[in-house]
GNAT family N-acetyltransferase (Pseudenterobacter timonensis), 167 residues
Amino acid sequence: MNLTSQQALQLRRLSREDNAAIAAVIRTVSAEYGLTADKGYTVADPNLDELYQLYSQPGHAYWVVEQAGKVVGGGGIAPLTCGEPGICELQKMYFLPSARGQGMAKKLALMALEHAREQGFTRCYLETTAFLKEAIALYEHLGFAHIDAPLGCTGHVDCEVRMLKSL
């Protein structure tokens, strides 16, 4: 692990000025893994270019990872749409290659889960795809369990990996 680059990574709340940068990160990482909009992945979300506005709502939060003044990743938490009360969703966890392998995804996920607990959520749901092996390993490490049926109305029909964690 490169200590210099790790020290340069900073985690902070999303600001309005970050909208274009985090949307670009999500589009870049999605393209890297072949996660196209036509298959219902995050790049198809109509609010992708306005994440600050979305995550400024009650019960929502989003953090970005910054390196040398540039947004290189992010992730957030929000109430599960059309879900049972008390269930939130870990959302839009994307990191450029320069931000990977340095513990920031774990740190961000733990921060999001703590925020969810503070907001009164009792369970956290997520959807991903088998292409994102590193992400799945992280979620398993954090105590997420695989479940068969999807929860809520996420619209991510091709996210075949579904996981749930009690908070």
Remarks:
- The longest strand covers residues 70-79.
- The longest helix spans residues 104-118.
- Helices lie at 3-8, 19-32, 51-55, 104-118, 133-141.
